[in-house]
Structures are given as structure tokens and as C-alpha cells.
């Protein structure tokens, strides 16, 4: 008889596996449980994070920057993506539908630093047609976990 004490339910969370009684149940002999669990664990989904107060580390300006591209060629998109990956001020970025092609979340130490990022890094790039920025006045809701 195979022991039934190896029921695992997969959740879409960091550290995916939780031991539960469930309709979704994988049953393995005791010796094979560890191998089975390691096979179910997704690769590279565990991440560590910390909340850091941007003001305390000298980053007093948070802004969202929209970019419209000159054209949508794969080469220009790759070139712009490579540029954005090298800039520490750009903490996240998305491609969008609508008027803007990219939306960037940036943190800078002050307004002159944001100005330099826009005028000396983003606008001179050959893929960039237009840049529009919105400076955050106050964050009314802090970043929160995913609703899963």
C-alpha cells in the first residue's frame, strides 16, 4: 500500500508548495516524496525583497516616464531595452498600448538628476521620439503584494 501522507497542493506564490488535503493530490511512496516535491517546485520563482525608504537613501524624486518610439522595429526596441537595463534610476518598466509605448518608474536624487536622465540619456536615443514625465507628489497607497 502506498502511504497517502504526501498530498501537496500547488499555490501561485513564492515558496509554491503547501501541504494540504485537497482534490489535487500527488501520492508517492515515502522514499520518493522528496524527489516528487523538488520536481514540482518552480525554478527561479523565489525572490527576496526589502522595502527601502527612498528618501532615507537620498532618492527624493519618484517619477513615471512615458516614452513614444520613432518606429517599432525589433532592433530599436532591443536597443532601448538594453539602455534601460543599464540605468539604475529605472526601477521598473512596461510596454503599453495607447499613446505611449513604454512606461518607466524612476527614482532620482533630485530634479536636476531627473532632467539629466531625460535630456541626456532618453531623448538622444535614436528610438525615442517623445518623452513625457509625471513627478509623484505623494504615494497614497504603498506597493503591496499581488492579490493571490
How would the blueprint of this fold be written?
Elements: E1 8-10, E2 17-19, H1 33-40, E3 61-69, H2 74-86, E4 90-95, E5 102-108, H3 111-122, E6 128-135
Antiparallel strand pairs: 1-2, 3-5, 3-6, 4-5
- Span of the ends, CA to CA: 36 Å
Average per-residue pLDDT, rounded, comes to 79
Structural class: alpha+beta
Number of strands: 6
Q: At CATH's second level, what is the architecture of the largest domain?
A: 2-Layer Sandwich
Largest sheet: 4 strands, antiparallel
Quick one: overall form? globular
- Radius of gyration (Å): 23 Å
Please work out how many helical segments DSSP would assign. 3
**Strand numbers in spatial order across the main sheet:** 4-5-3-6
Residue share in helices? Answer: 10-25%
Total domain count: 2
Reported by name, the CATH topology of the largest domain is Alpha-Beta Plaits
- The CATH C-level class name of the largest domain: Alpha Beta
> Can you write the helix and strand succession as a string?
EEHEHEEHE
Percent in strands:
15-25%
**Poorly predicted tracts of residues:** 1-33
